[in-house]
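Email to the structure team, subject: HD domain-containing protein model.

Hi all, the expression group asked for a predicted structure before they design truncation constructs. Nothing fancy, just the tokens so they can compare against earlier work. One-line instruction: predict HD domain-containing protein, return tokens.
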Amino acid sequence: MQNDQDQFRLYWTQFSEHVNLTSVQSASLFSLLDYAYSHNYYHTHQHIVECLELFYEIKDQLNDPIAVELAIWFHDVIYDPQTSDNEEQSAKLMLKHGVGILKKAELEKVARWIIATKKHLPSKVHDLKYLLDIDLAILGASPQRFMEYEKQIQQEYVWVSPEVYQVKRTEVLMQFYQQQPLFQTEYFQQKFEDAAKNNLAQVLSC
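Reply from the structure team: attached below.
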């Protein structure tokens, strides 16, 4: 069984070949992405691989699958839990390094989508709905993976006092729990809605 870093590399090779990157550009971007996702607890190779696995399940339902995949690769490329502009900075980095992958207008669209992963607000944009659902699908993972995720998030906020963290984290999870529906697409509603609400109810009752 491949580990997350191996799968990460494989998915990147497939993507770079699909969009016809030169070997130099592909290697340069891979180095950037590989490094960026090596320094967190949750926002890591594992998270990107899990997102891409779901992307491959639904890519045939997308209008612009390349744009969605590019957004997945870059949506957490900048992640510092002590700042509030990670998505904006990730979008800027994508715009800088995405030249040649898509046209300027499409890159600007991807940048908007990356920024939208900050608040996960309901959208009327078909592909963005899928992107946001992919990013939130961890909430509907198996109970074991969900609890691992909760521990990973807590590790990223270890600098926050336990009391404050508990209050803030409960607020975030309660907001997701009360969202009806949590997922914006029928596919993800059927696949993850019930499991996500059960996971959230379990942790909120602790």
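The chain has one domain: 4-204. The CA atoms of residues 78 and 90 lie 5 Å apart. Ping us if the truncation boundaries need rechecking.
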